[in-house]
Amino acid sequence: MDDQNTKADYFVIKALEDGVHVIGLTRGSNTKFHHSEKLDQGEIMIAQFTEHTSAIKIRGKALIQTSHGEIENGASEA
Question: How far is CA 28 from its chain centroid?
Fold first, then answer.
């Protein structure tokens, strides 16, 4: 199994609130949305970039863990 996709790093998205949107964007000259998931608080999605996915957009408060580190997105409410 020498598929390039099996060698790509995985990353973890953990929803810190209900309604976190994870949106996959296509590769190529015309970037388009091609996949969308909605996560509720505490749900985890494990994902990776592929030959079809060049970027991922995350809306809402979430924790993203990669082999390069960890980042929390979304504005905290004061």
Answer: 19
